[in-house]
Design goal:
mainly alpha, 66% helix, 0% strand, rod-shaped
Length: 77
């Protein structure tokens, strides 16, 4: 089994390797002690939220298309 990022597996199917890498980067930025990185922390949080929303919406769209196809095939029998 392949684990993405620092976590062991994923529970949400829309979470991609790119999103996990952004989350890990966000955590690393928060753990740094220098204030020069403070301006990048909100930017990284925003990127994570945006990517999560896009990925989740895409997964829901694909699932709804699959459901529509299955229901149409069932009704046409």
């Amino acid at each position: 089994m392949i684990f993405l990022g620092k976590r062991e597996g994923k529970k949400k199917p829309w979470v991609t390797k790119e999103i996990i890498d952004l989350c890990d980067r966000r955590i690393d930025l928060m753990q740094e002690k220098y204030t020069s990185h403070e301006s990048r922390i909100p930017e990284t949080w925003g990127k994570v939220r945006m990517k999560m929303k896009e990925a989740k919406k895409e997964l829901i769209d694909v699932a709804s298309i699959n459901i529509d196809k299955e229901s149409a095939a069932f009704l046409n029998r």
